[in-house]
User: Fold these one by one.
Assistant:
Number 1:
Amino acid sequence: MSEGLDLTDWSGRKVFVTGGEGFIGSHLVERLLRHGAQVRALVHYSPSGRVGWLEGLQDDVDIVQGDVRDGSRVRRAIEGRDVVFHLAALIGIPYSYDAPESYVQTNVVGTQNVLDACRAAGVARMVHTSTSEVYGTARYVPIDEEHPLQPQSPYSASKIGADMMALSHYHAFELPVAVVRPFNTYGPRQSTRAVIPTILAQLIGGVEQLHLGSTTPTRDFNYVEDTASGFMAVAASHRAIGHVVNIGAGREISIGDLVKLLISVVGRDVEVVTDEERLRPTGSEVERLLANNERAHAWCGWQPEVPLEEGLRRTAEWVRDNLSSLRVRGYHV
Ligand SMILES: NC(=O)c1ccc[n+]([C@@H]2O[C@H](COP(=O)([O-])OP(=O)(O)OC[C@H]3O[C@@H](n4cnc5c(N)ncnc54)[C@H](O)[C@@H]3O)[C@@H](O)[C@H]2O)c1
């Protein structure tokens, strides 16, 4: 069935997105709607009925409240869907030091539930979400998909477990699943736990001193619209089935240089102060990440469109417009 699936045209496709109310998920849902897909989204149940970044889209999206740890709930929600994007996860690295079991339950068991439901429903395509954190500090750059996996945090380990469960379902059960592996993503709606929004919120909020963790690690930042288009390109690629595909811009920048760029975007200079509390344990710090995105280009026709400077300008504008609702806490990269 998967071989016959043509996702060059998304109109009328019955799509299911877990984590659809989140940062990347909401951009993906909006993009799918723009392409004419019929979207159902699993939103993490909250007694208050909050639907995160899908607020206002209740008429366009079939919203199902639930929890990926609940297998029968996930099974019923996926019945009748053609394509499944699985993004729901616990993503904070610091919290994974405190609560590793939660990461196993949500990220590994939750993924197993989604895989099982996709098998039962006979979906034509599933895209499982990995992360560049699974590579750990680069042993060589740029990092291609053959780079060793190094679980430097419980978050990374839980994602490695989930990725392997996904690939095993391709090998053992011929489930047409592809693993998309985004590098650091940024843009409007990202929580201030992440490095770019926390710096922008501090700069725009008018602080005199910018509190940061280590400024030497490097990252490869990808604008969220590009990440979302990468998810759809991977889903549409027959070649990607049973494989991992990196989605990253292919440009490396240190946190220190990122700060300089953000200072120039916002137009105000401040003193940078290292906050011991924001440092990761030594062995857990991922010092260097830079994507080799050749596979995404060759197999899926994907390439990033938004240069870092432009993406940062758009993100700064969003932070300025939403400053009153943003809270600066500890953050992660
Ligand atoms: N943001 C990045 O830089 C980045 C980079 C690489 C990979 N990723 C991956 O992309 C995906 C989306 O991340 P994001 O940055 O949008 O973060 P996010 O926290 O905004 O999204 C995660 C979503 O999962 C949902 N969720 C958490 N636990 C759940 C549960 N038990 N049941 C149902 N839903 C649950 C949350 O409500 C949230 O909407 C994650 O899988 C993450 O690991 C993110």
Number 2:
Amino acid sequence: MSVEALRPGDLEVIAEQLGRPPRGVVGVAARCVCGRPLVVRTAPRLEDGTPFPTTYYLTSPGAVRVVGTLEAEGLMRQMTERLAEDEELAAAYQRAHEDYLRRRAELGEVPEIEGISAGGMPTRVKCLHVLVAHSLAVGPGVNPLGDEALALIAPVWRPDRCTC
Ligand SMILES: [Zn+2]
């Protein structure tokens, strides 16, 4: 299982980033060059039994903010339209969906969310934060639309240049 363990102090930083105590966090999937968590890995079932499909969760406040700006600019609708027209992109996005499910299953099977990933995958884009978190966690070449969003925000936010 490719989950990086939590380091001492991580949960405190994550609580500060989210503005609330984190729930179900089992590891850190991506870190800033400064060491602070950017993306957390969350259990597919929370302690109270709630199914939680979003296994990669973007916690970096700077990234959350700039990705929110992309969402406000209408990028999700444009991407969803392209998915309907571009077979190659649609196939790559389908593979991203399957990758997401496969990696989440490493943390346990949850029947209520079987086959359901997050962010609108595999046919729509409903949350860019989910796609960016996936790309940051697994690296380029897996989630094409997460990769695109990361490229768009790179002038103001990137994981290899600390803006924490
Ligand atoms: Zn940093």
